[in-house]
Amino acid sequence: MLEKLPDNYVPLLPEVEAFLAQPVMPYIGGAYVAPYSEQTFGTYDPSSGRQLAQVGRAQKEDVNIAVKTAREAFDAGDWWLRMSPADRSKCIWRLAELIEQHAEVLAQLDSLDNGKPLKTTQTDDIPLSAKHLYYYAGWPTKIEGSTIPVSQHTMFNYTLREPVGVVGLIAPWNYPLLMATWKFAPALAAGNCIILKPAEQTPLSALYVAKLTEEAGFPPGVFNVLPGYGEEAGAALVEHRGVDKIGFTGSVEVARKIVQGSVGNLKRVSLELGGKSPNIVFADADLEQAIVGSTWAIFGNNGQSCTAGSRLYIERKVFDQVIAGMQEEVSRIKVGPGMARQQPDLGPVVSDEQLDRVMGYVHEALDQGAQAVTGGSRLFGELQDGYFLEPTLFTGVTDDLRVSREEIFGPVVCAMPFDDVNEIIDRANDTDFGLAAGLWTTDVRKAHNLARALKAGTIWINTWGNTEAASPFGGYKQSGYGREMGKEALDLYTDVKSVWIKTD
């Protein structure tokens, strides 16, 4: 039951109030259904600590039901798989249109559930989710095999590219609908049936979109959503022998458990994991641009991005200048409730657990001699009921400290000086991660050389954070394997069959 939210919030839309008024249930086989255990869990507004809704707590029994339903929809020759690629495109395109039509509802749900500013969900998260679906709506008619010119002249050989089957998708809480869409859009385009497990902290927007799939023309069983805890619903989905593929975004620790849990039927797994991304500012950069860009490389989305530029390397001769510029830029950042009428630049972190995690790193760094140029504290006063932190910029740190090496997933950046190019390449690559990296320079040769030398899946030069549905995204090393977005994502959700015909 929705608790009364603060008076300074943007008024909730009637559709949002109606959606949250009753327990929100799992979506299986084209309908909302109570979980087998009839248990629920609460989802909360991290800006105020107030309960938003009770949500059906899917567990192993519900996973069994959902997998059976999805498997029947896939194997029984239902019209999703038999549907022409052009008609499947129409369904996906229609879902994108419906997300745009319900954009304000979805923006409020993600802002309430995650805490990020409403203006961010309105201008970024929800529109980009629709654009992602529009992009993949174009792919069903272009998924094709090949004719192979084999050396055996009496043989004709060709390939078919077919859907994997039943796909389990485990989405994170930092971009609730957007990163779920990253997964289910290509999976649906390829013709799979999906079971989406949203993060327990932020299940609302995915559950709302579930009901839009019926209007978009998806047959029952093609699109299923199971809210619940990772150790219950997530683990059961990973271990289920009826699931052919798992797509996961989250932490390295959970990823290891997923890989272990997948061995029962050797299901395919793709992983988009964390990062400790190096952001390198050279003295020849446009420093005004680099200062603003580096500030938002880390503090955008409150540092709750796997690509956050959390290791900031600045050429020594301009180190003090860049730090002073960032300090001034941070002083203008307004922190507050995501749904506040006076919209903030940053909201809270997602939960009290995440708040404790981030502050643990902050306190440890301060104890080890780091200097907080900005931030370093939790925010109280009018914000004491939420999980608010000051944007924190550390100097006086070294590469070997935990705060410099481990992913914090919060608004904390470590700034360190460097002296030459060869030094910074080695230091930037000295990490277990390899998701993203960036640099700021006006030297085009330096830019291209570092783009090759840095070991990361995405390199940004004189910019930060750009992604688009057409461009592949993923990491090196412990940042995972497989690529989301672009045509490469279709490889995750299709199998290739080789067909031989004797012609003599």
How would you characterize the overall build of this protein?
The protein has 504 residues and is of the alpha/beta class. It has 2 domains: 61-273 and 481-498, Aldehyde Dehydrogenase, Chain A, domain 1 (3-Layer(aba) Sandwich), CATH 3.40.605; 278-468, Aldehyde Dehydrogenase, Chain A, domain 2, CATH 3.40.309.10. Helices cover 38% and strands 18% of the residues. The protein has a 7-stranded mixed β-sheet with strand order 14-15-16-13-12-17-18, with helices on both faces. α4 (85-101) packs across α8 (204-216), α5 (103-114) runs antiparallel to α8 (204-216) and α11 (287-299) crosses α12. The termini are far apart. The model has no long low-confidence stretch (mean pLDDT 97).
Secondary structure layout:
Blueprint: H1 14-21, E1 27-28, E2 31-32, E3 40-44, E4 51-56, H2 60-75, H3 79-82, H4 85-101, H5 103-114, H6 118-137, E5 147-148, E6 155-163, E7 166-170, H7 176-189, E8 193-197, H8 204-216, E9 223-225, H9 230-239, E10 245-249, H10 252-261, E11 268-272, E12 278-281, H11 287-299, E13 311-315, H12 319-331, H13 352-367, E14 371-374, E15 392-395, H14 402-405, E16 412-418, H15 421-429, E17 436-440, H16 444-453, E18 458-461, E19 480-481, H17 488-492, E20 494-502
Helix pairs in contact: 2-9, 4-6, 4-8, 5-6, 5-8, 6-7, 11-12
CATH architecture grouping of the largest domain: 3-Layer(aba) Sandwich
Please count the beta strands (DSSP E, at least 2 residues each). Answer: 20
Classification by helices and strands: alpha/beta
Unreliable spans: none
- Percentage beta strand: 15-25%
Shape type:
globular
Order of the strands making up the biggest sheet: 14-15-16-13-12-17-18
